[in-house]
Amino acid sequence: MKRTIIAIALALAAISAGAQTKSFNLARWMQTESALLQELNRSYVDSLPVERMQKAGIDAMLATLDPYTVWVPEEEGEDFEMMINKTYGGIGSIIYKPDVNGPVLINEPYAGSPAARAGLRCGDEIHAIDGQSTAGLTASEASDRMKGKPGTKVVFSVKKVYTGEMTDITVTRERIHLPDVEYAGILEDGKTGYLLLSGFTSGVSKDVRKAFLDLKSKGMDKFVLDLRGNGGGILQEAVGIVGLFVPKGSLVVTSKGKDSSKNEIFKTQTEPVDLDIPVIVLVDSGSASASEIVAGSLQDYDRATIMGARTFGKGLVQSVKPMPFGGQLKITTAKYYIPSGRCVQAIDYSHRNEDGSVGHIPDSLTHEFKTAHGRTVRDGGGITPDVELPQREYSRLAYSLVVNGIVEQYAMEYVRAHESIPAVRDFHFDDYDAFVEYAKGKTFDARSSAMATYDRMVGELRKDGLEEALAPELKALKDKLEMEKEEFLRLKKDEIVPFIEQEIVTRYYFQEGGVEMVLRYDDALKKALESPLIEI
Predict the structure, then answer these.
(1) 3-class SS string, 21-45
(2) I need a surface site. Which of 219, 347, 466, 535 has the fewest CB within 10 A?
(3) Both 402 and 358 in a single domain?
(4) Quick one: pLDDT at residue 14?
(5) Catalytic residue at 300?
(6) 250 is catalytic
(7) Residue of 250, 255, 287, 289 with catalytic role
(8) How far apart are CA 499 and CA 517, in angstroms?
(9) Among the options 314, 330, 379, 386, which is catalytic?
(10) pLDDT value at position 288?
(11) Among the listed residues 110, 289, 274, the one whose alpha carbon sits nearest the alpha carbon of residue 197
């Protein structure tokens, strides 16, 4: 008994000593940092860029933890709000400023937005905002002048795209919320409901419920929830979406942090909308966080068939804490665990390599868990789909055209020349020659992946002093790989046309029309609808 008491006392002393050491180290660092700044302020040869030093120091400190723990100063609060909740005060339109000395172009008004209701459309030129010329403004500066407190008015001097008429248009700013439900509709087979979800901001579970019931009223007998590219959002909204398909009171997720007294259990709070309809959840490597809670929970309950590619693997929970002077700290406070007990976190940020890098948890160190019907699933690396679907790969040329805005800019030129187009289902872009001529005159990297690899190889050979010795062989290879820009554009026509059609259609039929066009070419979705579902 005496030995036990001594052992407990020693253990408590060790814990206390550890806590004191951590507190001492923290106090020592805070004093050291304060002393450094004071001495720099007194002695440094030039004036100190204090704000820049402060931001860089805090960012570097937090970067040693994980990518999701970040400090947001007060002046970045609106951008943070946009990132978290997809809301801002403004007119509801994407703008384009091709020339700093020219006007602002309306690129893409949002459906139902103040801009759209005021009659602004793609191609309209804004020459002045509240009487101030847009010439000389950057796109960011023009955007800042267009944004503002909801309820306030802004006056634009506009040159209309088709008539050339100059007119003043007054728009009342509103709280713009970019919807997470980007599209909901019945697919061509007339019986499959499809919903594209791009995020998990406040209230989205109610939006999904409403859309689902609407699809059901139209005769839907199978439901596809598309979470591809969905990076997540509010955990409680994920719980609400899971609750549409499982009994009320079902466990969805458990969050566990440093303080066990603050661990939380999240269960569904509402009655489901349907416990029987077959559900397909589409995922890919861009599906993360709340998307993985939805997909993983429905997989654990054997309530849906998960299809696509393995998800990102983010099993961490962030909370937002207020900081002095109006700042905010988004901090990782817990890990989450879905119904089977697994955590999908793929990267262990607490154990870094000597160079500070981190790596994925290898499959050999993951653990097995069981679904409700006894199927084996694993932790530690995202959600592995029940059905793997082929992921479309795009050429380097296609990426270059999109990233450099060539397709987007061409779409705006097309809109200027065409006041209307047929309905989405009937529209087919049939002037690829015009696009090739347009793209040929633009500056962008038109190399193939093979040619880019060749250029890197030549660079390495040059470093090693081998380029000259291999010159004949290199020239012969280059002659075979090199392709004229026009030739490459024509070779990749079938790959590029869908991008052009999407950009054009979006400017006439808004985001919903753009999604409909994407679905026309979605081979993974078509394969998913042909694949067998798990038994529920």
Answers:
(1) HHHHHHHHHHHHHHHHHHHHHHHCC
(2) 535
(3) no
(4) 53
(5) yes
(6) no
(7) 289
(8) 9
(9) 314
(10) 96
(11) 289
Mean pLDDT of 223-242: 97
* 376-386: pLDDT as tens digits: 999 888 999 99
Same domain, 255 and 380: yes
Mean pLDDT in the chain? 91
Same domain, 518 and 404: yes
So what's the pLDDT on residue 236? 96
Dump strand ranges (E) for 384-433: 387-388
Residue 232 · residue 314 · CB < 8 Å: yes
- CB contact burial 179-196 (16+ within 10 A = b; e otherwise): bbbbbbbebeeeebbbbb
Q: Are 109 and 507 in contact (CB under 8 A)?
A: no
Element containing residue 432 per DSSP (H, E): helix 432-440
342's CB contacts (< 8 A; 6+ apart) are 296, 367, 369, 377, 378, 379, 380
Q: Per-residue pLDDT tens for 208-231?
A: 999 999 999 999 999 999 999 999
Q: How far is CA 41 from CA 4, 38, 61, 128, in A?
A: 56, 5, 21, 44
**Is there a contact between 150 and 112 (Cβ–Cβ < 8 Å)?**
no
pLDDT for residue 356 is more than 80 = no
440 is written with which tokens?
């040929």
Task: Specify if 81 maps to a domain.
Answer: no
On whether both 201 and 172 belong to a single domain, the answer is no
How far apart (Å, rounded) are the C-alpha atoms in residues 411 and 397?
Answer: 18
Contact present, 255 and 335 (Cβ < 8 Å): yes
Q: What is the mean pLDDT of residues 389-395?
A: 91
pLDDT of the residue at 4? 53
Q: Could you tell me if residue 114 is inside a domain? A: yes
β-pairing, 279-283 vs 222-226, is parallel
Catalytic annotation, pick one of 180, 300, 379, 386: 300
Residue 368 contacts residue 375 (beta carbons within 8 Å): no
Tracing tokens 């699933």 back to the chain, one arrives at: 377
Percent of the chain with pLDDT over 90: 75
Is residue 375 located within the same domain as residue 421?
no
Q: Which domain holds residue 91?
A: 87-177
Q: Which residues pair with 72 in a beta bridge?
A: 328
Amino acid at residue number 496: I
Which of 89, 146, 143, 91 is CA-nearest to residue 115?
Answer: 91
